Each structure stands twice: as C-alpha cells, then as structure tokens.
Amino acid sequence: MSPALDSAAMSCFRPAAGGVLVAILAAPAVVAGAQDPPPSSGVERALRALLSPEPSGERSAAVSAPVQVDGAGLTRLGRRLWALESIGGGDASRPKLVIVGGLDGNAAGTEAVMRVVTWWMKERNAQALRDRWSLAALPCARPELCDGARSPSSDASPLAFPPAGGFFDGKQDPTPHYIWRWTTMQAPTVVIEVRAGGEVRWRANALATSVAPGAGPAEAGTLAGALGSAGSGAAWSAPAPALQLDASPDAAVAAIRDVLVRAAGVTSPQRRTILARQSRSPLDIARLLAPKYPAQPIMSYIPALAWSGALRLSRMTGDARLREKPLADMAPFLSGEKPAIAEPYLLTSLAGHLAFSDLAEIDGNAEAAALARKAADFILPEAPGEIVRFPRAWTDDMFMATSVLARVAARARDGERYAAAAGRLLTSYAADLQRPDGLFIHAKEGPHAWGRGNGFAAFGLMEALTHLPAAWPDRGRVVQGYQALMNGLLAQQVADGMWRQVVDEPGSYRELTVTAMVLTAMARGVRLGWLDGSYRPAIERGWRGLLARIAEDGTVMDVCTGTGSGPTKQYYLDRAGITGADDRGGAMALTAAIEMEGLRGAVH
Question: Which domains are present in the chain?
Fold first, then answer.
C-alpha cells in the first residue's frame, strides 16, 4: 500500500459519530507449509480494521448482513486480492453495489475505494443508503501495483475483460479471471470500477446510462464494458449495469453517493438470474441433474454417484421415469456385455460398484449385489501389511474403497472382514494425512489441503458411519476424525458459502465439488446425529453458493479438473476450473441436492 493510501486509510479509523455493528468472521491464518506466505497487505489490514469495534464503544444500526474480509483471488505472483463481502451474499431483498478499485494499477483508485467503504460502514450520513443497499468491495485488484512496493516482475499492461481462455489453469495470469468471477458471482445490481483521476468523469455500459446522465460509453475490453454483454461471455450468466468512475479519493464518496440515489430502480439481469438460481429447491436441482448425468456411463465413481442419486430420487419422489437412465447405463455391466472389473485396476473404477450395491438395496437385485460383492473382494488386501489393493495413498482412497466396502459389509453375512478393512483404511490414512486443525493434506507427496481431497476424506468417513453398525469397533475413532474434519472445514468457509480449491488458501478459487461434498457430509451428519444443529447455517450458505453455480440447463461452474497428487501448492492452484456440462460436477451437485432434501425433512 502506498504511504498516501496507508495514511488515508488509517485516518478513517478514528472514532466516528456512529459506527456500524458488524459480525467479524475473519479469514483464518494460513497454516505453514511448503509455500511461503505472500507479502503483507495494507489493504487487508485496512479492511480488517474497519471491522474492529469503535474505541468509543458507540454503535449505530446494523448493516444488512454480517460481513467478512476474504480473498477474492490470487495473482500469478501469489498476492491475494482482498475483498469485503456479506456473509451468505447479503440480503437478497436489497440491491447490491459492487466496487472494484486498482484495475489501472494506481493506488489512488484503491484509496478512493477505501474512502467509500469507510464512509459506508462508519458514518451516520451513509445510513439511509446503508439501509437500502448491500455492499461488496475489492479495493485493490492488482496488488503488485496498488498495494505495496511495485514488484520488478509485475505487469502494468491493462487487463482485458471478459478474460480469455480457461479459468485458473496456470497458462496465463489468472488475475482477470479471479476479478471477473468474484464480481459476477456477487450478484451485483450495479458495478462501479474506480480509477485514479482529477475531475469526476463517468463511463457507463448500456444498462447503466440512466444512473449517470452524461456518462460516456464504457470502452470495450474494460470491466464495465464487458459486463454489459456478460451473458455471451465468460460470466456464464447475464449482463449487469456497470460504470467506470475516474475521480480523486476526495471526490469519490460524493460521486458514488449521488449515483446510488439515482440507481434505486435500476434492473440487473445478472442479479435477477443468480437470485432465481438460489431460490430453487433441492428437488428442483435433483430433477434437473438426474436425467442429464452422466454423459459417459463408464465404470467409475463419477457415474456411480449420479446413478445412485437418480435411484434414490426415484424412490423419494415415486417417479419411476427417473430410474430409466441409471438402469439403462448399468445394464451392460450387469449382463456382462461390458466388464465391470477391468485393467488397469484402479480404486476410482472399482468405486463405481457403489451404485450396484445401492441398486441391490433398493430393488433387491441379486445380480447387482453379486457384482458389488465381487468388487469388494477385489479391493480387500492380499499381501501382508496391505490395507487395500491398488492404493494411491491419497485421500481419494478413503472414499473409493470405503464406498464399496462399507455397503457390502452392511449387507453381507460375513461383513466384518469388509468393515475391518474399511476401518484400517480410514484410521491409518487419518493418522498419516489429517492435520491438527482437522483438515487433510492430499498425500504425503502432496502436503496441501486440496479441496476435493478433503471432500474425498469427508465422503469416506461419511460412508462408513452411514452404512456400518453402531457396534463397529472403529466407529469411535472414525466419528472423532469426521467431527475434527467438519470443524476444520467450518472454519474455512468463504463468505458466499463456498469452499476453496485449496481449502486454507484465501483467494484460491471457490470450487464446486468440494462445496457439494462438504455440505453433503455436514448435512448427513446433522440429519443422522453425528453433528449438532449449529452446522445448519453453514450448510444453508453452502447450498446457496452451490446453487449460484448450477445453470438453468444443468451445466455447472468452477469444477476442478481431474487431479493427481502434486508436490507444490501452486500445482493445485493452477488446476483448471471447468465450466459447462461436467459429469463429476453434475454428480456431486446431484448428491448434495438429495442430501439437502433429506436434511429439510423429506427423508429420514
């Protein structure tokens, strides 16, 4: 942060005439690991100071929702894009202002945004607008340039919007992708990008011209310009009214205040779209996804989750049509037309048999039961000291093997040997991979808290507790590991309800599968009594975050691509976020929808 910004920001923290009551849910400190922490951020310190109690102890009316300081993204150099946003997305009945500063790399634009945020949260004369609007702010979108000493390797060239190429995959600077995703997923009513300037000057896209009379047109390639046609670009939703303000820090507050007064009736297709998505019920989502996934009916855990979900949904709703796709997809394996167990032997493939066990349980299908038992026998250890066959020593194994072993153990007369194998697997992996804070590293050679890796651990523990009896000897230790993981994950939930690609890295992208898996494991834990009801608000926030990333046609957003074990945190950060029709994301979202329906009382 520049000396001018640091001085101006800190001067705003003097006792004001009236403070704003906010709940503080600070992003937890990053656990030490193989990667050095990023440089200290003046923007982060300034934002967190805004959440501190007033020295005078004075309070005024509360803002519309508690707020949180969290990372909106990461630059290629590892600097975090710190942002202020409402927990749970804020009050859906209020329009939302989203402010972005520093895209021009000038600290004066960042200082202007900090002035606006400070006025908004601390001053009495902001109360009327504070009662009417919600606020989210990203003061410094290019931290190498606008938050601290300029890095010799930083690039000062303009960022282009909408961002080209894939998301977060390391082939290019991901900064514009993070900014774009954070901005659009805030469900904005109005977006204002603030740049350094002297005389106040506005530019607007076509949706925002009414709120800034006399504004020039927003230029193509700028954030404001691109948001005007976001529905056909990388936003994967709908356009939003957006403006660009060039102004000095001293003039920014009055300029934005005047625009908000005029923007009372503005319509944002993007906000309307996201809020409509978030209003859908679990059964709405399950009915949308079950006929769509999987597109590739191979023997793998991914189609199996979708098949099992569709079978459960059919039983829940009484709609026999929902059985047609999974039964048709599974038929070649049941008949032997396709080999259910084939080389190369992988736990990810063998886990596909979980759906055949579920089919046997639901329908009494003897062929399906025999197929599931054959897979469980194939997974059981053969060599001395072996825990299961074909292990990768990744958290993935905890789910892939246990999903089959636990189901077969529950239904076989000699189930104890399958249950014992599941217990050895879960307890030994927890001993090797679970950290003191409850989170799991992906593997010893991948010592980082990968999002879906934690989801696999959660699913493995959940499956064992679901299917194995109360008298199972390893239940106590597995419950402890499960509860520690849920507690660790609870502490890492992002403001909008999502969990991250690297769970404990603020700014790492907010990823669909880990969110679906965590809220599924939490929801089942509350429903079956392994967790208390205090987890319900986090589950509901996670569900809202997930809903925003499921489009009306059942395509999904920000699904981490298939991932092995990597030695560096950057390996996980650079894994591509897939947007579109994706079997993995669709299956996980379907599983979450069914579990949410169960938690809400339709299934016991």
Answer: 47-275 (3.40.630.10), 282-599 (1.50.10.10)
